[in-house]
Structure formats: structure tokens, C-alpha cells
Amino acid sequence: MKTQNEIPVFFSIDNSYAPFLAAALYSAQKNCNKNRKYRAVVLYQDLSEENIKRLSALASENFSIDFVEMKSGLDSITDRMSNRLRCDYFTLTIYFRLFIPAMVPEYDKGIYIDSDVIVCGDLAELFDTDLKDNLMGACTDLSVADVPELVNYMENAVGVKKEEYINSGVLLMNLKKMREQNLESHFLNLLNTYHFDCIAPDQDYLNAICNGKILYLGQEWDTMPNQSAEPLKDPKLIHYNLFSKPWCYDGVQYSKEFWQYAQNCGYIDEIKAYKEAYSDEQKKKDSECLGLLVQRGNDMPKNEITFKKLFESGVKIRL
């Protein structure tokens, strides 16, 4: 069945992230257009029945919430350092977005959003953006654009200019075009053939594969805390990227918006308890991990196998 009038919005989580997804879903539902139909699709691994029930309670008449367990096609993705998010833990959920086009042939277009967000605007506005012939729409990643070592990594390992390097936490996906280009197969072929060392695994593959076929969105759709920059006045979507989590730290930019929605998402007690229990040891580990990210960003362009080196040698990297 073709669902032309429905706006599909995909999220991916495991059990530990349910409270933060609840805040994201609640904010999206509260700011949606009552005259449009939305369908949130939660792609999950190891999500309890209790969490499914509690998250389902956030649905409304025009904002449905469905759950899809991810199993097939992921056997070849294993826990290597190159597959780790941030550098400290491994989760398959970061790769789920790459399988969306093949999973939902009934949709020609869709939105993918990370779960560490608050949606302040109407997602219909994002969905209605004309992608033309591009594979996706996304925002440049300003969270790392002022770190020289990471810029070195983007440009000399991934092979993408810093002003073209996108954050994959918010994607407007041309699902039809991605299917036509066999994005999933191309990704798995690159992953299993070359095992690229990555800082942000899914994000680096998407940048390497889709560069030149990306519509760059206004920064209001992927607004990230940055203490060295003035906050945006009217962000439409706030993304608490990397270590800038208001449920871990005080003083994070845009914290007010997070707590405003978290208060009524059904998980406020768990979120407050999580923050209270976030120890000095965990904060120290975050700091060490950030240092390791920067160090790896500086070292990886020297690797024998990088996206850039293979692309320049004639290997098909970009679609």
C-alpha cells in the first residue's frame, strides 16, 4: 500500500536509550501539524516490552508509533574499534539508518533522527523540502568543524571538505533514489571489503558514499550545543551530539528545551536519576574518550586504507 500522505520518521535505539527517545517523541508529537499524519518507526535492538508499552503511550490521533526489531542483514557487522560510536562502546543501532531504504519500499521519502534530540518545530516542514535528485538532505557537522585534528580526518581520511561533511543524526532521505542506487549493498560491500577505520562509523560511510548528492539543510534542523558559539534563536531540532547531554552535565546549551519536554515524557524520574548517578569517573572517561577521538582523527589519514586514498586510486566509493 502506497502511503503518500504519511510522514515516516525513523529512530533507532536499544533499551538504555528509551527515556531519551521518549523526550524526543513527546516533543515531535507536541509540535506536529494536527492536519498531517505522522508515523514514528522505532528500529530497535533489545527493547523491553515495558519500554515498548510506555513509549507507545506517547502516540496521538495523527502521530502513530510502531516498533521494528532489527535482526537480518547485520550479522557481518561486528565489534571492532572502527565500528564504535564515540570510541567507547559498540552499538549496532548506529547502522540501522543505512538499511531503512530497503526495509520500507512503500515510502519514497522519509526522515531519520537520532534519539538524543528535542524537536522544536514541525517535522512536516522538513519532510516537504524538495530534495530534487539528491540522495539526502542533511546539515554540515559544526560540532567538529573547529577541531583541526578532526577537520584533518574529514578532509584527508574521509575525503570530504569540512563545509560539506554532514552530521548523520538528522537525515531527510530520498528512499526511492537510495533504493535505485543500492545504497545498502554498496555500504555492506565497502564495510566487509575494506574495514575502514572510522571515528563516526555510519556518518563517515554516508559522507564518503553520498558526497556530491546531498542537499544541505539550514542549521536550525540539526542545532548542536556549542559553548563557543551564540545559541540559535529559533532551532527547529536540537541535537545533543557526542558528550553534550543535559542528562549527564549541567550547563549544556539548550538544556532548558530538553527539560521542558522531558518533564512530561513519562520517564522524568529515570532521567533525573540517571543524571544524579552520572559519576565523576564517567565524566573523566568522557574526557579521555574525547582526547582519543582527536588523537585518532590526527592519525587515521596516515592509514594505508582510507576512503580518500581508495577513491583517488579509482575504487568506487561514491554513488
Put the structure in a nutshell.
The chain has 319 residues and is α/β, with parallel strands linked by helices. It has helices at residues 18-30, 49-56, 100-103, 123-127, 148-158, 175-180, 183-194, 201-210, 255-262, 268-277, 280-299, 307-312, and strands at residues 6-14, 37-45, 63-69, 110-113, 117-119, 136-140, 166-173, 214-216, 237-239.
- CATH homologous superfamily caption: Spore Coat Polysaccharide Biosynthesis Protein SpsA, Chain A
Can you give the helix content as a percent range?
Answer: 25-40%
The fraction of residues in strands falls at 15-25%
CATH topology name, in short, is Spore Coat Polysaccharide Biosynthesis Protein SpsA, Chain A
Return the average pLDDT rounded to an integer: 91
Which regions have little confidence, pLDDT < 50, spanning 5+ residues?
73-91
Strand order of the largest sheet: 3-2-1-4-7-6-8
**Major beta sheet summary:** 7 strands, mixed
| C-alpha termini separation | 29 Å
Rounded radius of gyration (Å)? 19 Å
Can you walk through the features of this model?
It is a single chain. The chain is of the alpha/beta class and 319 residues long. The chain has one domain: Spore Coat Polysaccharide Biosynthesis Protein SpsA, Chain A. Helix content is 35%, strand content 16%. The chain has 12 helices and 9 strands. It has a 7-stranded mixed sheet with strand order 3-2-1-4-7-6-8, with helices on both faces. Strand 2, helix 2 and strand 3 form a beta-alpha-beta unit. The chain starts with 5 loop residues before the first strand and ends in a 7-residue tail after the last helix.
